[in-house]
């Protein structure tokens, strides 16, 4: 019996977007150092769950609860959630014109370090660490001096998200289709980073449709989202069954 307490505990979460209920009642728990894969048809609410937990103002929580490390996540503002160790990668990372990548990431890293009681990194120490992480992810050093994501390809944007993940070392990382637009080397770098952080205790919720990535992640749990609820929970076999039969699962398939 697993006695490790959940890091993330979500109960009966209900979320409205633009006056429409997208998540009816979502309950799930994620323990430290584990990987949970969230699957579901387009529009089922996978991105909504991540954005609501991160505190995006357009995603209004109208019921239920969410705790991170025993603290009330929903009572925190966006910045406090990040400082508490929540990281969200965007499905489509935006540009931030005029803001240098290295300054943006160092500011975020030092804010998190300060909340943990650690000494902030000066510019030199940060660049040493950032360049090392960038090399591991196949991201050119020159990208650190450019405005955030400005002129980046899709794969470079995703690698830049991974760079932030590598340097922030969050307690919980929600990765929304992080492999989208990635080449083979990018996917390999993603898997290596997840494995390293997982060993250090980071928990992951990974949104993905692709069985190859899911199998390589070796998830502890696979959850299928449908009609605003977790319709099925299982292991890798569930992801394999979905890949074979699709998301329109019959009652017989669910029972099996």
From TrEMBL:
Pfam families: ABC_tran (PF00005)
Residue intervals of the ABC transporter domain: 8-252
CDD domains (alphabetical): ABC_FeS_Assembly
Top-rank taxon, per record: Bacteria
Residues spanning the membrane: none
UniProt keywords, alphabetically: ATP-binding, Cell membrane, Membrane, Nucleotide-binding
GO molecular function: ATP binding; ATP hydrolysis activity
Alphabetical list of NCBIfam families matching this protein: sufC
Similarity comment text for this entry: Belongs to the ABC transporter superfamily. Ycf16 family.
Protein name: Cysteine desulfurase
Species in which this protein is naturally found: Ramlibacter tataouinensis
């Amino acid at each position: 019996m697993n006695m490790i307490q959940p890091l993330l505990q979500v109960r009966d979460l209900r979320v409205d977007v633009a006056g429409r209920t997208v998540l009816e009642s979502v309950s799930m728990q994620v323990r430290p150092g584990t990987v949970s894969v969230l699957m579901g048809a387009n529009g089922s609410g996978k991105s909504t769950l991540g954005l609501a937990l991160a505190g995006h103002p357009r995603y209004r929580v109208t019921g239920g609860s969410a705790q991170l490390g025993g603290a009330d996540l929903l009572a925190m503002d966006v910045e406090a959630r990040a400082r508490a160790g929540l990281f969200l990668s965007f499905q489509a990372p935006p540009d931030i014109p005029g803001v240098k990548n290295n300054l943006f990431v160092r500011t975020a890293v030092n804010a998190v370090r300060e909340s943990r009681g650690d000494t902030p990194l000066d510019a030199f120490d940060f660049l040493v660490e950032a360049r090392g992480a960038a090399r591991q992810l196949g991201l050119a050093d020159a990208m650190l001096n450019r405005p955030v994501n400005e002129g980046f390809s899709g794969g470079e944007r995703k690698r830049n998200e991974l760079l932030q993940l590598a340097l922030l070392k969050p307690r919980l990382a929600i990765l929304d289709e992080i492999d989208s637009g990635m080449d083979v080397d990018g996917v390999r770098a993603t898997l290596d980073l997840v494995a390293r952080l997982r060993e250090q205790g980071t928990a992951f919720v990974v949104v993905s449709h692709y069985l190859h990535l899911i199998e390589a992640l070796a998830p502890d749990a696979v959850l299928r989202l449908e009609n605003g609820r977790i319709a099925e929970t299982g292991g890798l076999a569930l992801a394999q069954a979905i890949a074979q039969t699709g998301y329109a699962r019959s009652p017989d398939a669910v029972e099996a």
